[in-house]
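A favour, since you know our structure tokens better than I do. What I am after is a single protein written out in full by you. Could you add the entry underneath, on a fresh line?


***
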Amino acid sequence: QEQLVESGGGSVQAGGSLRVSCVKSGRAFSYAMGWFRQAPGKEREFVAAITWSAGTKYYADSVEGRFTISRNSAKSTVYLQMDSLKPEDTAVYYCASTILISDFGLPLTYRDWGQGTQVTVSS
């Protein structure tokens, strides 16, 4: 099992930017990494995903064009650059790791999860 540690959350005004990071430790194989978020009273929702090898990226419609996922394989780190933030982006953001090669938008696809980092966007 891997350990995933997120960092970089915080508070920002609408229109601002934040970058959250996720460091993966351990030797377990990982095919892809995903970012999810969960707001109070809502279900956990997919934000973005990236494969380690090819760097293929996937985005939720709600963040396409505003968020950018990237990875640094040498550092076992995945980043989520969030620009043009909106109040509705407020949530706890989680990174997750999967050995599966499809269905990256589904939480059940992922085996290991980080503890989450809070992102708050004020209007």
The longest strand covers residues 18-25.
